[in-house]
Input
Amino acid sequence: MEAAESLNSAGTVPVVSLTRVSKVFVMGEERVEALKGITLEVAGGDFLAIMGSSGSGKSTCMHILGCLDTPSGGEYRLEGVSVEGMSRNQLAEVRNKKLGFVFQGFNLLTRTSALENVELPLIYAGVGAQERRQKALDALAMVGLAQRAGHYSNQLSGGQQQRVAIARALANDPALILADEPTGNLDSKTSEEIMAIFEQLHLKGITIIMVTHEADVAAHARRVVIFKDGRIVDDRRRDQGGWAPMVRP
Amino acid sequence: MMDLLLALKIALRALAVNKMRSFLTMLGIIIGIGAVIVMIAIGSGASQVIADQIASMGSNLLLVVPGSALSGGLRSGAGTVPTLTYDDVKAIRNECPSVERVAPTVRGSAQVVYGNMNWSTVIQGNTPEMLDVREWTVAEGRGLSAHDVDGALKNCLLGASVAEVLFGSESPVGKIVRIKQVPFTVVGVLERKGQSPRGEDQDDVVFVPITTAQRKILGSPFPNTVGALLIQAKSEEVLSQAEEEVTALLDQRHRIGPSRDRDFILRNLTEILAVSQQSAQVMSLLLGAVASISLVVGGIGIMNIMLVSVTERTREIGIRMAIGAKQRNILLQFLTEAVLLTLFGGIIGMLLGMAGSYVVAKLFEWPTLISHQAILVAFAFSAVVGVFFGFYPARTAARLNPIDALRYE
Output
């Protein structure tokens, strides 16, 4: 029933549904309002870029979307299920089963092979050894690194490391991939390679939300949302002609 | 189970990555466990020696010796005046139900000569009961018989040390030795008994019939008296009862009362030795306690390193949390690491402790005894130290905020 309530106009359940989400940080005497009532819906299969200067609230929003943090107010529904009131362990399970993270600094485990890195979320999900290995190999194949499965992360180039990280994010068939400045540590050529992979994933119907401050990286997305001072100030979708403003509720 | 296996795998890898550090961390536990094992081995070795000596002495024994005598205002030392008689022996045998056997004995020293060899040793005048009371057996030949005692025959039984000195590898049975110029026929050789609780060689002795000893060798100004009584109670349970019975009987027979001091002394030998064994056990416990302090210090070292390790690996913890590790997974991972450290340390310490005990035994000729119990306790203790000192750092890791952990540089 819950899911039915959050049906959108198209009649499907949006992957992400933020309703007047706010986040307040209290640091001693000071009260910082990082998010001031964000409302955002992301449909399944979309490729969204979040842009904004530092301090605009995009990182905070990303943390909430990633279930690493919880909103101070408003509601966040992931695949129609509200995360409100979830315990740390329940949030960990949501991260494990429904989300895949790609970080700016790759964040692979050192002294660990690419395969083992990709297996990690499956291990925590309790997947058996054989199935785990197969799924991890499949995910590595998707990013074109099947041949490097046995390499340790420090034996791989930055671009390769980021591809391993993407494979890791894909391993558990998540509902949503969250990428936080995925090209921030890469040169422009490697950045293009990584973005090409994201585009491929998008074509396979995987939902992606990406934070970036580079316009040419954001240009790969189908929809761009711009944050400023804790609010969404612009929301455009790319169509044949160019970028058209989204009709917001 | 799955979680535990996983934690084990991760922990093993983490320890392998920092081999030197892991080893240095373990060192505290290694030394601690090693010290505990060596100390307990030394302590229980000592109490084992005492226990063996108690067993070699015979069990449930009471010793009655003559008391001091007051003559003309001069008090002489205990045992100087023979007050115990054969009639006392008979009375105890007949009237004390808790007493199994009574062995009267006299002691003196004399030179024993065989061929061109001679040896000064203890001459004990005994009755046949003595061997049963002392739980002593004859290695060769026979023991003294009632016939030997009744006829005051010149037969003797040699202690193992005496037989060795006088006869070497030759068999002494049937040979004639001279004790104070009196020829005695050797009828048997005693089984080797070893050291007494006082450190004397119990085998440096010659047994002769008590009657012969008194009449032919030691002489006695008081005929019909004996030097001491060794009394064996029927069982450990009735030992103190036997003590009371014998005391009451002798009090009555010797007319001990308010106006007359007791002229005999009764000692419970088993009790005396049990006390010394107890003190050895206390010593072993104390040594163990001192050694376990080093174990605690080792545990603190582990806690210290684990805290460093948690800080160092904050980012890794953040990644694991972002990917879906629950608090339990992280807690288990670091706890397993700490327990593995202490367990490995415990095993190495145990081996080292065993080697150390062996060295102590060889080098200082101190008897050591490694009990399975001590090993088990040390092992369990090291695991407990791991859990105890590993818990705080592991909990610190599990409580990290994933966002902060991910941002940690």
Notes: Helices of chain A lie at 2-5, 58-65, 88-98, 114-125, 129-142, 158-170, 188-203, 215-218. Confidence is low (pLDDT under 50) at residues 1-5 of chain A. Chain A is about 35% helix and 30% strand.
